[in-house]
Predict the structure.
Amino acid sequence: MDFDLNEEQQAIFEMARDFGAEHIAPHALDWERAGTIPRALWPELGALGLGGIYVGEEYGGSGLSRLDGTIIFEALAMACPSVAAFLSIHNMSAAMIDKFGSDELRARFLPDICTMTKVASYCLTEPGSGSDAAALRSRAEAGPEGWRVNGTKAFISGGSYSDLYVTMVRTGVDGPKGISALVVEDGAPGLSFGALEHKMGWRAQPTSQVQFDDCLVPEANLLGSEGKGFSYAMAGLDGGRLNISATALGGAQAAFDATLRYMGERRAFGQSLDQFQALQFRLAEMETALQAARVFLHMAADKLDRGTADATKFCAMAKLHVTDAAFDVANQCLQLHGGYGYLADYGIEKIVRDLRVHQILEGTNEIMRLIIGRAVLSERG
């Protein structure tokens, strides 16, 4: 097995890394303070083929693999994890429309999604059902004018900002079999948003509740088949967990790279910090953690690309391992910067704040342990 990137993958990584370094990193702190990402950024990413990474070329997508996606999101997150993670959510929504949508739905939405003239968000979590997503209560009733939706979604990245919301709603009985997926367009009658949330990290991403009050959605905006929405959402989360892991890894790598530079420049007791053996040991441990996480992430992505029976388990294991390792590395990097690490100008404290949520979203790491444990027991025979 070859663990190195091939020539095409290396070119993809360098393209995303260089774009991030030029167009994202210099503005990341300003965007965080403003609490938003300029809309003009997205068409630039769309022009690079990053608006529909997994979407087929027929609709303007790039048709890349999940492994390619992890490479892209790691590279972009080296500039800003918050921006890269928002793009990953957009791509998760796009992939769901491409994989499960009707020809009419794909033709109507995907070209604009791929160019990123329209931005998509993913709406699953509710105020009363976080980890227990199958207990969601937002309901859609079919009628002569289409679907009437009532309910509230919480912690939605892009709430009040995005153009499309891929939304899980209850159209039938309690439990996962009664859930369907709708594409709700911004401006739909009855669609509104809560106040922007004040968050520890990911501050550049506008985040709010998404509220439906007799919200009218065209019948044709049903994604796939009625009653299949929960399975679509879970399938989307396998890839989402890889992407969130990749963005965590990119942020941690950026913190590590900055720490290496800092330790070569900062002097104490007559020598640079990188000459202290105890601190060299810390660097060795962090480098090992990052490289191990990267290999594990790529292996899980390869399994998802090949559709192996254990792909979901490996996506959960990757999400658990990589996000924990990435946060630990970033936190150690802050410590090695001393008091300077606590200052916003150095950028390390932002990475620490941004990466903390990666252990929570796309399924908390406690839920990842549950998924993994159940898979291990079912494989026991």
Remarks:
- DSSP finds eleven helices and ten strands in the chain.
